[in-house]
Amino acid sequence: MRATGRLINDLERTLLRLLLDGHTVATAAATIFVSTRTAEAMLARLRRETGAPTLYALGAIAQRLGWHDSAA
């Protein structure tokens, strides 16, 4: 895991929550009113910044970083 002090924004948090809940990128993107490519880019950026090799690893890292704390 790469250390990152960055906080994620509400859109990124919602996308991550939807994906971890089992939604596809396409349905998660539609839910947050962005294109599938934008959602894929957001996910790729989060994975790159944290060094997460998978979505599930990103979820674990997000938990450790406190990114879920303010999720609605």
Automatic annotation (TrEMBL):
GO terms for molecular function: DNA binding. InterPro entries: Sig_transdc_resp-reg_C-effctor (IPR016032), WH-like_DNA-bd_sf (IPR036388). SUPFAM superfamilies: C-terminal effector domain of the bipartite response regulators. GO terms for biological process: regulation of DNA-templated transcription. Transmembrane segments: none annotated. Gene3D superfamilies: Winged helix-like DNA-binding domain superfamily/Winged helix DNA-binding domain. This is Regulatory LuxR family protein. The lineage of its organism: Bacteria, Bacillati, Actinomycetota, Actinomycetes, Micromonosporales.
